[in-house]
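Reviewers asked in the last cycle whether our approach scales beyond single polypeptides. To address this, we selected a multi-component target totalling 378 residues and predicted its structure end to end. The input consisted of the following lines:
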Amino acid sequence: MNYPKGIKKGFDNKNITYKNRGMTLEGDLNLTNQYYIDNDIAYIYKKPTPIKVVKAEYNKEGYRVIKEAYYSEPSTTDYNGIYKGCYIDFEAKETKNKSYFPLANIHAHQIKHIRNIEKEKGICFLIIRFTSFDMTYLLRASDFLNFIDNNKRSTIPFSYFEEHGYLIKEKFIKRVDYLEIVDKIWRLS
Amino acid sequence: MNYPKGIKKGFDNKNITYKNRGMTLEGDLNLTNQYYIDNDIAYIYKKPTPIKVVKAEYNKEGYRVIKEAYYSEPSTTDYNGIYKGCYIDFEAKETKNKSYFPLANIHAHQIKHIRNIEKEKGICFLIIRFTSFDMTYLLRASDFLNFIDNNKRSTIPFSYFEEHGYLIKEKFIKRVDYLEIVDKIWRLS
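The resulting structure, written as structure tokens, was:
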């Protein structure tokens, strides 16, 4: 059995600190999604980062090499796919901040997209990790939209996650087992 | 009203040739998907092309410029999203060939993905354009998988599309109105 880096065998949820384990939320989600795929649970993928290619040429081996390109802003959330026949869509972000999540992390296009998916009755949420505490919350799109539609703040306070979010327990292989929470909230069985 | 390039007003389906109108299938699908989004019909997007960045640096203006990168193979199909609450997933390809579609155009990873989505009961299909005739077919994933599972050929003959595929009529704005076909096949209302 392959234990993820930094996790000891005989693991006890209460006594182990995950600090400095060197895993980003993206890394954890990649492992989790791969677990879901390998076990035929869900097919959810991170979309590739949008890159605008300006200059590309063929090298000696006949491969196209990109010589100049720029990162561009995503028009949708980063993750989507299918689970139990349902459309799943989410954005994942980390923050080092201890008291709030800065909304500048979510682009206007992405908010519009989240609104659209919510309207279309897709299962839509955010996964936000507060890296200082190593706490990862799932916040439903409806609660997220409710906050931004009723507040002028440029940040969502940590207390809002405590009150409206769902804490995702970290596990061995399914590092961020968000589908466990999805099952409960959307009552999928 | 903006008529797409090369299409004359007073258009008659039978007499107009679409040859040399300079529109790729990808361009047509982008216009169509944008129409669906703008009219709150469906939220289906092309995934960005996966690119592996090898070297990137900051320029004088503080932007990250990619200096060396390579195209990498996609692990899923290019398009996915949500329509009438359902998960939609498809791959789109053009071929100049007049008598068959070369299967080399669809990677092994993509075939596996199509199989997974079909199993998970997502709405999954291919959109194949035969550019020589300007004919665009929708082929259901089940018919596609049925072909490759029962044939050793490396191509799907054009006749298979005539027999099992659905011809997508070209329109003014919704250039490739594939959802009209999806409605019929999957009986969405």
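Residues 1-20 of chain B have pLDDT under 50 and may be disordered. We regard this as preliminary and will revisit it once experimental data from Aim 1 are available.
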